[in-house]
Amino acid sequence: MPEPTGPPERGVREAELPMVDARQVHKSYGRLEVLKGIDLTVGRGAVLCLIGPSGSGKSTFLRCINHLEKIDGGELFVDGDLVGYRQSGNRLHELKDREVCSKRAEIGMVFQRFNLFPHMSALDNVLAGPVWVKKAPGGPSKERARELLARVGLADKVDNYPNQLSGGQQQRVAIARALAMEPKLMLFDEPTSALDPELVGDVLDVMRDLAGTGMTMIVVTHEMGFAREVGDTVVFMDAGVVVEQGDPRRVLTEPEHERTRSFLAKVL
Q1: How far apart are the first and last CA of the chain?
Q2: Are strands 47-51 and 107-110 parallel, antiparallel or unpaired?
Q3: Which of 62, 63, 178, 235 has CA 20 to 30 A from 184's CA?
Q4: How far from 208 is each of 67, 87, 197, CA to CA, in Å?
Q5: If DSSP states are collapsed to H, E and C, what string results for 174-213?
Q6: How far apart are CA 68 and CA 91, in angstroms?
Q7: 190, 200, 189: which is closest to 167 by C-alpha?
Q8: pTM
């Protein structure tokens, strides 16, 4: 269990609190230390792009944010609340599964693989969260699901099943499904890496539009053009640490660290 260092400053207006505040976050699997003290903040409405080689800890960090993985040290706050724990004095108490699920429902996550229910239509996949998790009434939820599918360019695919959709279309359904839960934060874990190159643009367009609405987003990506255009901050991770971070145009064109330069030389 991580050691408590204290909650965000009290008296600070909610609008001034970062949406995500990671303080010396550590995560290990047995003897393998994957995260070695991550310090990061993500402001409300900001887009942070995480780049780096495979195995650098990017996806693990995302999974810690919504408590799919438990951290082993440090603290992680989302919207001012500890992820997975409640602090009482100098002690941390792990939340019950029901409480964790309730908090997780406030964070949308889009994975590399689309993870759609294969036996359900696009419309029913988007409906699943609001109806099953939030117990929202079916009529308004269905109308909202149709609106979201139209928003991602799939108004004519509401009755199609996943095996009738291209990879890019499936990923756009997955984004609509996450948005149906009305999240305060969206996490994207290499959302285009499993797509054929000609399908990547449609998914990035949806993400670009979403960023324009003011949604707070953390995106693990190898799409450097997207990071440069849409990101407010780019963070380069390697071997479980943050090597470099800053304005995308600076980090991607004039990186300060040799390790960043070496990585970008191979991917740009």
Answers
A1: 40
A2: unpaired
A3: 235
A4: 26, 37, 17
A5: HHHHHHCCCCCEEEEECCCCCCCHHHHHHHHHHHHHHHHC
A6: 22
A7: 200
A8: 0.91
- pLDDT by residue, tens only, the chain of 268 residues: 555 555 555 445 566 789 999 999 999 999 999 999 999 999 999 999 999 999 999 999 999 999 899 999 999 999 998 888 877 777 777 888 788 878 888 999 999 888 899 999 999 999 988 877 777 766 788 999 999 999 999 999 999 999 999 999 999 999 999 999 999 999 999 999 989 888 999 999 999 999 999 999 999 999 999 999 999 999 999 999 999 999 999 999 999 999 999 999 998 7
Strands (E), the chain: 20-29, 32-42, 47-51, 73-78, 81-82, 85-88, 91-94, 107-110, 185-189, 216-220, 233-238, 241-246
Q: What one-character-per-residue DSSP string does 49-77 give? A: EEE--TTSSHHHHHHHHTTSS--SEEEEE
Give 3-state DSSP helix, strand, coil % of the chain, rounded to 5: 40, 25, 35
**Phi, psi of 184, rounded to the nearest 5 degrees:** -90, -15
Residues listed for the chain? 268
Cα distances from 45 to residues 32, 40, 186, in angstroms, run 34, 15, 10
Nearest Cα residue to 153 out of 183, 179, 173, 174: 173
Strand, helix or coil for residue 18: coil
Angle subtended at Cα 153 by Cα 152 and Cα 158, rounded to the nearest 5 degrees: 95
Token pair of 166, please? 């291209």
Q: Retrieve residue 241's tokens.
A: 């640490």
